[in-house]
Write a structure and sequence with these properties.
heterodimer; A: TIM Barrel; 8 strands; globular; B: Rossmann fold; 6-stranded mixed β-sheet; 15 strands; 19% strand
């Protein structure tokens, strides 16, 4: 069992949902991102989704687009992101780390080399938002062979047939996209999301994490109570430090509070 | 999967949110396109509204100037002033039959945006067009036309405010409305099935061209020259000739100010395979896979990727990738103005410039066809500035 599976087992035992925090590494500088991850983990994030900035993040809304742009301007490269995993591990951070990257990054580096280096640095899995199941072979198999999870996504537009196809290949957890849109959109109504959770849970025992549009404790509460195994929060954190870019470290206490609140929303889970 | 692949290029690299829409589109295209009803309606509109067939014009004076026979396939005479309407009409009809209520798209030179709102109006579909702020500024006349026809223009400020950024923004918008809205992709780029659909609708250019040249010359041409970035006008002209190995095919991309990395849009000159906007293709990128901004005076060629099919045909050696520099392009406009009394679009002028500057590629008995993809009204100000200085 790896860190990710152990984390889900542990949370289940404590009747808690998981809280994964999504961070684009290097925005606005590496030092801040490292501190941000530490703060999130110390204050209620169970796992980290570490985003490698990409020049054209088509699944991301304005907040994360700006984050990518700033990080790239600051000179962040995929190799620096991978080194960051090692730095976080040497600081004693035990939280599972999922590396999120658009497909061109590992494609250009060489997929095998990419997997080997994130594995060696201490990551547990990868999530590639522009690699649907049709394109996932042979990459999914290569990922498993390297002892990593390939996290697959399911959307409100996913048909039943595709749902089954995706769940058959699922590893680690499945990422349910709560809404039709991009990251940082507002989750206006949860009815579609709740139906999505029900549909997925009916077919699989693989944990289901819900992301996109989650910014408040109440969002987390509703989703966890509806059967989700966890929530992903990303743009909501970036939004806080975005307003204090001249000294983003000043935003850390507020981010800590927000992370704590989200985690509260993940507790008291009824099975 | 092999569907939607051209050699190693192509594919469907999009978020799961959009997969249903792409699969729905693929199914609808395969079912509806071959029907007699669709063909009749499509070709009827191309004829009566668009003005097809467009003429194949023997450019006698230009031919004398270069020393071999040159024909122009006059896509500038298609309603709207460029080849873009062929694809826009086809996709708008398809979208209507699929029950979609709205069209979204992106545009750079404005020609595709204009064609889309024209087609949208014919089919009774609302049209929304994403356009980089830099392009809005430099293609003002087309922006005005689109507005007049009722399109909603959405300025895109992200990135460099050019085509690449507008495509990203349209894909994002589509993720939020794909059940009711069709993304009318303007070139042979993007995820499958777009490259196939666009090339199919544009191949009317090559089919006519073939028939016309056979009537006029009794044989196929020795060479066809077309400009491009995504590749829609080039593939449209090349398609029926791909198997005719005796016909040399030239694809002219935007060389920009110089071939230097920061000044060009010539992805075949300094690109490498990569994935952008849903497709694996030849791409301008840095060593880490970050997309490099492209640069050329021709907004319509200002895209860092070459569509998957044209990427494959160039890799195979069937199509020769070439480029023309901005300066050569403006000079070519002048030659066409003086010899034939025609003002070409800056994009089209790339193909003309290549023919003018590469005599080593053509011999005296050659019959060469330039796909004259669009007219230059939209570029008048830039052309005047080049010839007469700032106004």
């Amino acid at each position: 069992m790896d860190l990710l599976e152990m984390k889900f087992q542990d949370l289940r035992r404590r009747c808690e949902g998981a809280h994964m925090a999504h961070v684009y590494y290097g925005d606005p500088c590496e030092e801040f991102s490292l501190k941000l991850v530490e703060t999130l983990v110390e204050n209620g994030a169970d796992m980290i989704e570490l985003g490698i900035p990409f020049s054209d993040p088509i699944a991301d809304g304005p907040i994360f687009q700006a984050a990518c742009e700033r990080a790239l301007k600051a000179g962040v490269t995929p190799v620096k992101c991978i080194q960051a995993i090692r730095k976080l591990r040497s600081k004693g951070i035990q939280a599972p780390i999922i590396v999120t990257t658009y497909f061109n990054i590992p494609y250009v580096m060489g997929f095998t080399r990419f997997l080997e280096s994130i594995k060696e640095a201490g990551a547990q899995g990868i999530l590639i938002p522009d690699l649907p199941i049709e394109e996932a072979e042979p990459y999914g198999r290569m990922t498993i062979e390297k002892g990593l999870h390939m996290i697959l996504q399911i959307a409100p537009t996913t048909s039943k047939t595709r749902l089954k196809m995706i769940l058959e290949e699922a590893s680690g957890f499945v990422y349910l996209i709560s809404l039709e849109g991009v990251t940082g959109s507002r989750l206006k109504s949860t009815s579609t999301t709740l139906r999505l959770i029900r549909n997925v849970k009916a077919y699989t025992s693989v944990p289901a994490m819900v992301g996109f549009g989650i910014s408040k404790r109440e969002n987390a509460e509703t989703l966890i109570q509806a059967g989700a195994d966890g929530v992903v929060v990303g743009s909501a954190y970036a939004k806080i430090y975005m307003e204090k870019l001249d000294n983003p470290f000043e935003a850390l206490p507020e981010i800590a509070k927000q992370a704590y609140e989200i985690k509260l929303g993940c507790k008291n889970r009824s099975f | 999967m092999t569907k939607g692949r051209f050699g190693r290029y192509g594919g469907m690299y999009v978020s799961e949110i959009l997969m249903h829409a792409l699969l729905e589109l693929e199914e609808a295209f395969e079912r509806i396109y071959p029907t007699e009803e669709f063909q009749k309606e499509f070709h009827g509109l191309l004829r009566d509204y668009g003005g097809r067939p467009t003429p194949l014009y023997y450019a006698r004076n230009f031919s004398k100037h270069v020393g071999f026979k040159v024909y122009l396939k006059r896509e500038d005479l298609l309603c709207g002033g460029s080849h873009k309407l062929n694809n826009a009409l086809g996709q708008a009809l398809l979208a209507k039959k699929m029950g979609k209520r709205r069209l979204i798209t992106e545009t750079a030179a404005g020609q595709h945006g204009l064609a889309t709102v024209m087609a949208g109006n014919i089919c009774g579909l609302k049209t929304e067009i994403f356009m980089g702020v830099k392009d809005i500024e430099r293609q003002a006349s087309n922006v005005n036309k689109m507005k007049l026809l009722g399109a909603k223009i959405k300025p895109v400020k992200t990135g460099a405010g050019v085509l690449k950024d507008a495509v990203s923004e349209t894909l994002r918008e589509w993720a939020s409305c794909s059940r009711t809205t069709h993304y009318l992709m303007g070139s042979t780029v993007g995820p499958h099935p777009f490259p196939t659909i666009v090339a199919t609708f544009q191949s009317v250019i090559g089919q006519e061209l073939k028939q016309q040249i056979l009537e006029k010359e009794g044989r196929v041409p020795d060479a066809i020259v077309a400009c491009g970035s995504g590749g829609s006008n080039a593939l449209g002209a090349f398609k029926p000739f791909i198997e005719e190995k005796g016909v040399r095919l030239y694809f002219v991309e935007g060389g920009g100010e110089s071939l230097g990395a920061e000044n060009s849009a010539a992805a075949f000159q300094h690109g490498s395979p990569g994935v952008l906007h849903g497709s694996l293709m030849m791409l301008m990128q840095d060593r880490w896979g970050q997309i490099r901004p492209s640069k050329t005076r021709a907004a319509g060629l200002n895209y860092p990727g070459r569509g998957p099919e044209i990427s494959h045909l160039c890799e195979e050696g069937r199509v020769k990738p070439c480029y023309a520099l901005d300066r050569e392009v403006f000079e070519a406009v002048g030659v066409m103005c003086r010899t034939e009394g025609l003002i070409p679009a800056l994009e089209t002028a790339h193909a003309i410039a290549y023919v003018l500057n590469h005599p080593e590629e053509f011999s005296r008995d050659d019959i060469v066809v330039i796909n004259y993809s669009g007219r230059g009204d939209k570029d008048i100000e830039a052309i005047l500035r080049y010839y007469y200085g700032s106004s």
